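Illustration 12: TauD/TfdA-like domain-containing protein.
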Amino acid sequence: MKTSRVYIKPTGSKIGAIVHNVDLNNKISPEEHNILQTALTDYQVIFFENQILETAQQKVATKIFGPLLPSETFFDHPDGDPEVEAVINDENSPPIGTAIWHSDLTWASEPPGGTSLYALKTPVGKGDTIWSSMTAVYDSLSDGMKTYLNDLTAVHSWDMGFGGREIIFKRGQEIYVNHKSSNPPVEHPVIRTHPLSGRKLVYVNSTFTSHIVGLPKLESEGILEFLFGLVTRPENQVRHRWQEGTLAVWDNTATQHSVVDDFYPEYRELRRVTFGGHGKPA
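Figure caption equivalent — predicted structure in token form:
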């Protein structure tokens, strides 16, 4: 995909692309805006290298892809900004839970549409992030399995993993109780239709999905383990080695991701902004 300025170079056979000839500090033209939106829908995760971005500039860049959302993950908000999170790990703050495959906040009634993540400080050659395409996972299923899964729903809960509970609980018992009561488990379709591309995708993940509704326990567990296994298949993935100054933007509906937590106890810092616009899963 080329115009006079923008060049989108795919990095994987099914997912991932690098955006060339765009400085996110400059004003983005309507044409470029459309190209970048289309690139994210098509490639599901895109990378802008060699960017120098302050927080405000990252927020402006993220708005290209959807309205900004206050985020309720397990990271701190620098300067009290609900739309920005600091992802910091060091010897005192080891990574917790990020190595497990997941889509962000699928326990919400309306999960975020996507995320931008900017690398401020990264260990050399460590701490890669891997994304897997859920449309590719769906496409790999037999027609019979697609039909069987199509009308099923599954329950998602933020309280499944010990890591999430521990982080929230450390903020105080009252905060934990309020978070738990205001975020009860939710049901989402096992097979979701992407609101922008119209493509079908698998919408369960091993971090937040507890069970498939209406199925016996062993059957639910067996189907979920089968689907979780397809997420880990290399042919459905792209692996990104971080460099300082890279901004990654991914489609949270169409992908899952996992961090390679081989960098502890080294220092790693990224800045995260979340956007919406994909509506409730359907």
